[in-house]
Amino acid sequence: MEDNRQISRRSIMKGAALLGCSMIAGVLGTKEALAQKASKGSMKYQDKPNGDKQCSNCAQFLPTNSCQIVEGTVSPQGYCVAWQKRS
Question: Of 37, 36, 83, nearest to 57 (Cα)?
C-alpha cells in the first residue's frame, strides 16, 4: 500500500520558522558565552607588572583601563596569566 501523505505549505513554513528561530537562539547563546569575562582571581591578576609584562603592552588591554578577558577595571601596570604581547 502506498502512503499518499502530502505536506502542506503551512507545515513547511512552520518548520522553516522554527528552524530559523532555533538557529538565532543558538547564535545569541554563543555571543553571550563569549561576552563573559573571567574574574581577577581566576586569572591571577595583580596590580604590579611581571618583569616587562604589564597590561599596557598586552594585546587584551583596552585604553579605558579594562580588558577583553578580565572583568572590572585593570591597572595599566597590572599583569595576569592571560598576558599576550601586543603586536
Answer: 83
